[in-house]
Amino acid sequence: xxxxxxxxxxxxxxxxxxxxxxxxxxxxxxxxxxxxxxxxxxxxxxxxxxxxxxxxxxxxxxxxxxxxxxxxxxxxxxxxxxxxxxxxxxxxxxxxxxxxxxxxxxxxxxxxxxxxxxxxxxxxxx
Length: 126
Prior knowledge:
By secondary structure, the chain is mainly α. It has 5 helices and 2 strands.
């Protein structure tokens, strides 16, 4: 997930479906913490924003679990108790909760919408 690749970067104006697709495609190997962008999003954005991270799982897979610390999350992830297939949808849901007020602002405020369009016109890609 690199800002140099717009198809993998999360932008403040991304629609919910775009965020879901980008997170679903993100690099996130089971049990591997080092260099895992999904875990970094949780560490630097989700936990500071919400003070917790909830993963929804079926009862067959242990049920829902709420993590209050990054260390707790990492312990479950490294052990394999928490799988990327469960982590990614929870991450998408949390990111979309953060981004929803921003999306609404751009929809409702014509000045903000116009400014966003001007900024998008200047985006440089490699």
